[in-house]
Write a structure and sequence with these properties.
Keywords: Signal. About 15% of the residues lie in helices and about 50% in strands. With about 260 residues, it is mostly beta strands. The chain is elongated, with a radius of gyration of 24 Å. The relative contact order is 0.20.
C-alpha cells in the first residue's frame, strides 16, 4: 500500500510541476496575446471506450480553467470497468452465460490533475481545435467478487432429478470444478459486500479535437494512451494450479477514446 501511495504521489507531483511551468508563462503570453478566449472555465462529461473495457468502458467528467490563451489546467474524474484481455463468454448447460475463469470484477476510479496546451486554434465560432493533454493521478481499484449460481443438487440416484440446491457463490476454480453444474452468472452486485480495494497510479497523454459552434458550449473527442500500475495484479481471472500473478497484469497499458460534451463560462 505504501508503494502504491508513493507511486501515485510521484505522478501527482510531476504533473503539478507542469502546471507551475504553465503558470509561469501566463504573464508573457497575456502580454502578447491579441486573441483572448471568450471564456475562463469549461466543464465536460462523456463516455469512454478503451482497449481494457467492454462495449462502453465507463464515464468521465473534467473541469478546466484557462491560464492564458494557450495553457490550461484541469482536474478529471473517471469511472471505468477494467476487463482481462482474455475474458471469454461461454454458454452453460442451463441456458445461462458466464465468463470462463472470471473470479472478480475490477472497477476503477481515476482522479487526476493535468495541463492542456492548444496545438491548433480554431476560429472563434467554428472549426476544430486541437489540444494536447497530460495528466496523472492515483487509481483506486474496487475488486468485487464475480458470483455464479452453482448447482449442488445430489443426483446420485436420479441424474434427471430437478435442481434443488442452487447457491450463489464467488467463482473459485478449486471449488467449482464441474463446469456442467454452473447454472448462470449471479446478479451483478451479489458480492458487493466483499469488495476489496487496491491502490495504484496512472499517467496519460492525449489529443482532444473539439468543436464548439457556440461560445458557451463544446463537444469533441479525446484520443490517447494510458499506463496504469498496481503493486500487485488484481485477480480478475483465476485457474486452478496457476498463480494469480501469472494470469493477471500488474501493469495495464491501454489506448482510449472519449466522446464528450460540455459548457463554458
Amino acid at each position: 500500500m505504501r508503494t502504491s501511495l508513493v507511486f501515485g504521489s510521484s505522478l501527482l507531483l510531476a504533473t503539478a510541476g507542469l502546471v507551475s511551468s504553465a503558470q509561469a508563462q501566463q504573464t508573457q503570453t497575456l502580454a502578447s496575446s491579441t486573441d483572448q478566449p471568450s471564456y475562463r472555465k469549461e466543464f465536460v462529461y462523456g463516455v469512454n471506450f478503451n482497449t481494457r473495457g467492454g462495449l462502453i468502458g465507463g464515464a468521465t467528467v473534467r473541469s478546466t480553467r484557462l491560464l492564458n490563451q494557450d495553457w490550461a489546467r484541469f482536474w478529471s474524474l473517471e469511472l471505468v470497468e477494467v476487463k482481462h484481455p482474455k475474458e471469454q463468454k461461454i454458454p452453460t448447460n442451463y441456458g445461462g452465460v458466464i465468463v470462463f475463469g472470471k473470479s472478480n470484477y475490477l472497477f476503477v476510479v481515476r482522479p487526476s490533475v493535468g495541463v492542456q496546451r492548444v496545438v491548433f486554434r480554431k476560429a472563434p465560432d467554428s472549426g476544430v481545435q486541437v489540444n494536447g493533454l497530460l495528466s496523472a493521478g492515483p487509481s483506486i481499484g474496487f475488486v468485487m467478487p464475480y458470483f455464479i449460481s452453482y448447482d449442488y443438487s445430489d443426483r446420485t440416484s436420479n441424474p434427471n432429478a430437478p435442481a434443488t440446491d442452487i447457491r450463489n457463490e464467488q467463482y473459485d476454480p478449486l471449488v467449482h470444478r464441474n463446469l456442467g453444474a454452473i447454472v448462470d452468472r449471479a446478479p451483478l452486485f451479489s458480492g458487493v459486500g466483499e469488495t476489496d480495494i487496491q491502490v495504484g497510479g496512472h499517467i496519460r497523454g492525449a489529443l482532444s479535437f473539439e468543436y464548439g459552434r457556440y461560445r458557451d458550449a463544446v463537444a469533441g473527442v479525446e484520443v490517447g494512451a494510458m499506463v496504469e500500475a498496481y503493486t500487485k495484479a488484481p485477480p480478475i481471472i483465476r485457474v486452478a494450479g496457476v498463480s494469480d500473478e501469472s494470469l493477471n497484469d500488474r501493469f495495464m497499458p491501454s489506448v482510449y477514446l472519449t466522446v464528450y460534451i460540455g459548457t463554458r463560462n
